[in-house]
Amino acid sequence: MWRKCLFLLLCLFLLPKSWADMASQTAYLSKSQTLEEFLHDVPAQTFFPEATGYGEVQEKPHLVPVMKGTTQIGYVFLNSDYVNAGGYSGKPIKILIGVDNQFTIRALKLVKHSEPIVLIGIPEKKINAFIDSYLGRNYTQGNKAGVPDVITGATVTVMVINETIARSSLLFSRAVRSEQGEQTQVIAQTPDVPKTLLEYQKDAPAAGDWAQMLKEGDVAHLHLTVGEVNEAFATAGKKDAAGISESDDPNATFIDLYVAEVSIPQIGRPLLGEALYQQASKYLKEGETLILVAGKGLYSFKGSGYVRGGIFDRVKIEQDGEGFHFRDRNHRRIGDIMIGGAPKFPEIALFTVPADKNFNALKPWTLDLLAHRAVGPTKKEFIEFKLPYQLPERLLKEAPNPDYQPPKPATVKAETEKSESISSSEMTAGNQTVDAVDEEMPTPLWQRLWQAKTVQIIVLAVALLILTLVFFFQDFLAQHPKFYKKFRVIYLCFTLFWLGGYMTAQLSIVNVFAFTHALMTGFDWSYFLMDPMIFMLWAATAASALLWNRGAFCGWLCPFGALQELTNNLAKKLGVKQFKLPFKVHERMTAIKYLIFMLLFGFSLYDLGLAEKLAEIEPFKASIILKFARAWPYVEFALVLLIIGLFIERFYCRYLCPLGAALAIPAKLRLFDWLKRYPTCGNPCQKCAQECPVEAIFPEGNINANECIQCLNCQVLYHDKKRCMHLLEEIKKQQKYAARAKRDRERLAALQGEATE
Prior knowledge:
44% of the residues lie in helices and 16% in strands. It contains 30 helices and 19 strands. It is globular, with a radius of gyration of 33 Å. Residues 672-702 form the 4Fe-4S ferredoxin-type domain.
């Protein structure tokens, strides 16, 4: 009863604070987070070294001119004035963007963000370096350069930055042109229409063997040695990377890379074999192209990034200044190249170029190989090598272009009609969405991120379904202790190595803060949908907490919890002595995590950034997300907790985890309690209480649902006829009754025999 009262008092304490903070937060966003405020701290010379200062701030569109004396040389605007710049935290990622009069980006300045992985974990200079890669882009000429190299561990953040820079730059240029009446439309007779077109020569002969295909250009080849790569890094000024070699032998093969366009029959049939070529061609849609990539050597062109991110980030196709990466759904593994004389390759990939890439298989293109070397725990240096490809001349022919007409002089006129401009209602300042149709980005970012992780989403959905079945059929599983024990270890390994190791899908108390602030400052589902794995885990955790308690996540889906349990199991097998605190001491210490949560939550209402820094009480970033590649104090803290966990199972979960405390509060409203107990549990039997990994069973025998992690150990004991005291007594009673019944039957039979005589 007192716990329920405490819960209600906590709600009453926090709600008025939330209401008051909601109003203050809204005022903060509308009054202080403005272009004018940031201009005080960022001089005009940041964007244009030759500038003498800023001009007068304009409200419609919201911008400030950059002046050189009395001459305007460009503009500066705030991205969040034109697009919804909300990041993974739900807070806007605010960037000042400086463009010249032709709308080419001259400089960018990150002025405010609340991204947890950047505040704590990834150095902000990495994000700044990523932002600087947009220098020189002009989005009025299209988004040809694509997304720069993604930063490991901050994929969602950098994708949001890419989206907001591209969209805000495009919308800003439209707004300026519309306001000034300078939006133009060129009236000309289909410019750049060539006189002739290239066509595929269907009756051209095929090459006879591998050597001939290389000689005639059916297959393009790039060979790099370790020494050549070292030299390339050194020439690029990346001396640290130049000094880190994959081999001591400079003549060792770094990579031997081959590429071919196998949708062409004369190339595809010899390389793939007739059966595979026919199968691949059968599913090829109109406008799609098949590209074969094979490689061997010390460097893999595939890497491992596509496993967790769905993108092959080491190779890229470029044509006519536009580039794109392949995704896992466009990939198919192949065992061997079939043509005679071809070498054996450990890596062969068949990629499908989607029709929406507007790839012209008859025109020249290049395969870009991105080579990288780790020069620190969290730092890598990159360098790019290009492998050009063009179909051999024997496979091409020229034909007249029926659409060609001699060009006429172009005329330009101003177009100021309302239909061609962006209305003021489509653009709002601050944290509001721009409802403008952007042909450069036809689908929302979160949808593209979900599409890119289709396979991973299916895997996690199956894992969650299996866990749901475990909860529903726990009585059946608990009756098969050997199978259940093995199953639990396998599931925890999946959670640790796939969910945590590959997908870095670790929930955090920071997510709770972000959700709370989103409710206070304008909730938008798109913030939380940007990471499919985290969203699915939160949905499953919320549902299971209301149905049972926090155990589904804490006991099964938390990678750090799995790491603690697996390492403790190993310690037990090695004979490490386990320590158990007296129950009264243990019970008082469990309150620590609730105090930590309330303190962090209170700080988050005052200053979200400060709360996120204090949330380093969670070792998740150091151990799971960044895999111990952090500054030594963070790694040391995580290791200390794991070492203590070798002696006290799940020490961090029991006493320090604020996320577990946060999840325990709504679990007070749980609908079901399916964990069974006998009347004798706790009096006198203490077997379950002694073996509970988190001491979630009171000496009286009842289960503390706030601390229970649903490991089902007590349910296995509940059905164990060799270890459960209640069942042992029942068996003894049954045996006693059976023996008595047997004696009675024997006595009755004897009496009947005497009567017969």
